[in-house]
Amino acid sequence: MGGDLGPRLTVSAALSTLERNPRLRLRLYGDEAEVDPALNPLLAQLSPDLRVRIERIHCPQTVTMEEKPAQALRRKRDSSLWLALKAVADGDADACISAGNTGALMAMGIAQLGLLPGIERPAICTALPTLEGRAWLLDMGANLDCDADQLVQFAHMASAMVQVVEGVANPRVGLLNVGSEQGKGGAIVQEVALRLAADRRINYQGFVEGDGIYSGDVDIIVCDGFVGNVALKSSEGVARLIGTMLKDSLKASLAGRVGAWLARPALTHFADRIDPANYNGASLLGLKGVVVKSHGGASVEGFSRALEVAITAIRQQVPKRIAAVLAELDSTAPAAPV
């Protein structure tokens, strides 16, 4: 029950999602002393048929946002993070959603669920708005330093995911770089570019610069976690800046206020398209189960969106179908030269 606002936000979002999904059942993992004050007043407002679909699991330990992943992995086996992931591993839950410590979530996810065959590290993958719809960016911060093998694996995982979730038969893949010209970027980026270009199983489109993330020219953008996290946070900051400046400008005069009233439907549509809350919820691709990371500072709407991402992944059987696509790719890979 992590995140900047803790159970106050996550419980409210979870219960609102429960009301919209009649087949959903919830397990809320956390310290009862923190969860119950947020949960009980809301439970009193729910009908009996909704209350029976909610279970609160007391967890005496908490993984803080500052805690080192290795330390949490060794010492926090009674934490909400560990026990929620264990429920997925044991088959008692179909997905784990957390707004807590990203590094601990990844380390515990690997320990509890294991990695898909051929995958060295999981990658955090999320959708971003584009002029053509949306594109998927990975890694978003799980792996700050990536070698060429891992980045190539990310491209394969994301391609498989977009195929099963979006129904895109041959998703277009770009590699985030400081320029679109050949020869730009460091040695690892150059190696990955050559390998993706030579891989017929990947629809590689070349380098993508930062402003190209939102053009819609590619369906997938691959990068290491450091670059991806900076790109995501910068995007969120720009979206908030545009929204605030637009509101201030429209409120500054009578003509602006009248114009805003007349253009309200268009402005609402515009706000929805750029609102980071509508794109919250990033899947940890590469694990043998559904694990979704929410932004720690997400709103109720944002955390609800992360829950919906998990529900979609469950329905689409994303890990299983990614594993099947990767196995098929592996079986058709050219034999290594002798």
Helices, strands, pairings?
Layout: H1 7-20, E1 26-30, H2 32-43, H3 48-51, E2 54-58, H4 69-75, H5 80-89, E3 95-98, H6 102-113, E4 123-130, E5 133-138, H7 148-166, E6 172-176, H8 187-198, E7 203-208, E8 220-222, H9 225-251, H10 254-262, H11 264-274, E9 282-285, E10 290-293, H12 300-316, H13 318-332
Helix pairs in contact: 1-2, 1-12, 4-6, 5-6, 7-8, 7-13
> What is the CATH-assigned architecture of the largest domain?
3-Layer(aba) Sandwich
The chain-level structural class is alpha/beta
CATH classification, class level of the largest domain: Alpha Beta
Number of continuous helical runs? 13
The H/E string reads HEHHEHHEHEEHEHEEHHHEEHH
Strand order of the largest sheet: 3-10-9-4-5-8-6-7
List the quaternary state of the chains: single chain
Describe the protein.
With 338 residues, this protein is of the alpha/beta class. The chain folds into 2 domains: 1-113, Isopropylmalate Dehydrogenase, CATH 3.40.718; 116-276 and 307-338, Isopropylmalate Dehydrogenase (3-Layer(aba) Sandwich), CATH 3.40.718. Helix content is 50%, strand content 15%. It is built from 13 helices and 10 strands. It has helices at residues 7-20, 32-43, 48-51, 69-75, 80-89, 102-113, 148-166, 187-198, 225-251, 254-262, 264-274, 300-316, 318-332; strands at 26-30, 54-58, 95-98, 123-130, 133-138, 172-176, 203-208, 220-222, 282-285, 290-293. The chain has an 8-stranded mixed sheet, sandwiched between helices. Strands 1-2 form a two-stranded parallel sheet. Strand 6 (172-176), helix 8 and strand 7 (203-208) form a beta-alpha-beta unit. The relative contact order is 0.14.
